[in-house]
Design brief:
2 domains, 3-stranded antiparallel sheet, 15 helices, 57% helix, elongated
């Protein structure tokens, strides 16, 4: 799906959300009641997220889709479709064929869609439109369902992200607040920075290999910085905070910030959570884009492929 050369990640992410997800939405309200739907839909969503970021299949897909601001899992999207489909059926005029068929099915066999879809909503703690939402508009109910699904997914994803600590704890890097991939399209940003935003996102997700052992990939606890050759126990922190190779870029980026924390971990967190529109965002994205370009060149020179 994704070719290994730079592209505008925010636009690609929106394309997946709008086109691919929109295509899947056709009939998803029906397939969602299948017992095997959840792992299939979640796996698809995870594969798309990892593919967009050029990550290996074994990487944490929850971290990937949070970086892409996909707050609903694949199954959560299907549950939303089910809830909204039921709401549309409830809102049909009385005496209509489809509404009457739906009502009869609700009193019929438990294996039918009306009953199993209601059980699915209950399992996700989503209220049916019939449960006290009469008088509420369809769009208002849609907002209620979406928010409740976001809350459920945020709780589940927190557990999945809890063990991800590269470059920092992802719980500290990614919150429910504004996100770069969304905000960047609302401000005046150069095309170069839009392209470099993929490197920025991959850096935050811990997907850039910035250390080695003898010019090779390694799982050793202490490795060498690929740019300087010095020992680097925490390569991401080393590159951004300490590595002298990047002194010029570091100075330009840090000058745009005020009152940066002294501790290296806190400083790295502040630099990686800057948002579009804030001073320093364009400098940080440009810098990490250059870091990523140099990283790819290093591994290409050492015969390591594929390089994303």
């Amino acid at each position: 799906m994704v070719e290994p050369f730079p592209f505008c990640l925010p636009n690609r992410s929106l394309l997946i959300e709008g086109k691919v997800n929109g295509t899947l939405a056709f009939g998803r309200w029906l397939h969602a009641i299948d017992e095997e739907a959840a792992p299939i839909l979640d796996r698809l969503c995870g594969e798309w997220a990892l593919n967009l970021l050029g990550a290996a299949p074994w990487r944490n897909c929850t971290v990937a889709w949070w970086e892409l601001v996909w707050r609903l899992s694949g199954m959560a999207r299907a549950v939303k479709d089910v809830a909204l489909r039921r709401a549309k059926l409830w809102l049909l005029p009385e005496g209509g064929f489809y509404r009457d068929f739906f009502l009869r099915g609700s009193q019929g066999p438990p294996s039918g869609w009306p009953c199993t879809s209601l059980l699915l909503l209950r399992s996700w703690h989503i209220p049916d439109f019939f449960d006290g939402f009469w008088g509420m508009s369809y769009n208002a109910y849609k907002r209620v369902v979406t928010q409740r699904l976001l809350d459920v997914c945020a709780h589940r994803d927190m557990q999945a992200k809890a063990g991800h600590y590269i470059p920092l704890s992802h719980l500290a890097l990614c919150s429910d607040g504004p996100c770069a991939l969304v905000e960047v399209l609302r401000v005046n940003t150069s095309w170069g920075n839009l392209v470099a935003l993929r490197s920025w996102t991959r850096f935050r997700a811990g997907l850039l290999l910035l250390s080695c052992k003898g010019g090779r990939r390694s799982r050793a606890s202490v490795q060498c910085c690929i740019f300087r050759g010095a020992f680097a126990g925490a390569p991401y922190q080393h590159v951004i905070v300490y590595c002298p190779v990047w002194d010029e870029y570091r100075t330009k980026a840090v000058e745009a910030f005020r009152n940066l924390p002294v501790r290296a971990v806190e400083r790295l967190q502040r630099l990686l959570t800057v948002l579009p529109g804030e001073e320093g965002f364009s400098k940080m994205v440009e810098w990490i884009g250059v870091i990523d370009t140099s990283r790819r060149q290093f591994w290409r020179d050492h015969g390591v492929t594929p390089i994303f």
